[in-house]
Design brief:
By secondary structure, the chain is of the alpha+beta class. Helices cover about 35% and strands about 30% of the residues. The chain has 6 helices and 7 strands.
Length: about 180
């Protein structure tokens, strides 16, 4: 089985949190079935992106996106030669300064299709990562607004489309075990 086949299987195994996610799963699986590189931001205006819900004993990381001015999880485009799970780690490090790690095995948690910049459509694969409960240190050029949030604070501040996903995340035993100091 190829990496792409493995990715399709992981996406198909996600239990959607609402109808938006169910539709996003269907659309993402359809996108992955098309010919060409589904990760390339230049080959098509419809492409796969990757992001991460980073958790620790301090809660979940959200950052105020520089351009969107919304509180979201770190993430972005998949670089050439990279796979989404790697992109989620890289984007987390680039946007937060945290050395987060994947769960074992890596946990593809959610899929969301939404408009991106320049008329693009993003098929965002959202992983759950774990980090030490240290302060984020975003580098120059990235949003300085990066913080740990408990569930109530995260849901109050985040982009509205994340509310259901965050509630499901905090209720999962794999996450709640990491939320205990």
């Amino acid at each position: 089985m190829s990496d792409l086949d493995d990715l399709v299987a992981l996406i198909g195994a996600i239990e959607p949190v609402n109808e938006r996610e169910a539709s996003s799963i269907r659309d993402t699986l359809a996108r992955l079935a098309l010919p060409g590189d589904p990760f390339s931001e230049t080959a098509s205006d419809h492409h796969i992106t990757a992001s991460a819900f980073v958790v620790s004993a301090r809660g979940v990381i959200l950052h105020r996106h520089r351009r969107l001015k919304k509180w979201v999880q770190p993430g972005g485009h998949v670089d050439p030669g990279e796979f989404p799970a790697q992109a989620a780690l890289r984007e987390t490090r680039e946007e937060t300064g945290l050395d987060a790690v994947h769960f074992d095995p890596p946990w593809l948690y959610q899929v969301d299709v939404h408009p991106g910049p320049r008329g693009h459509t993003h098929y965002d694969l959202r992983y759950v990562l774990s980090s030490a409960p240290v302060d984020p240190t975003p580098p120059a050029g990235e949003s300085p607004d990066v913080f740990w949030f408990d569930l109530e604070s995260a849901r109050a501040r985040c982009e509205p489309s994340l509310v259901d996903a965050l509630a499901k995340l905090f209720a999962d035993e794999r996450v709640s075990a990491r939320l205990s100091p």
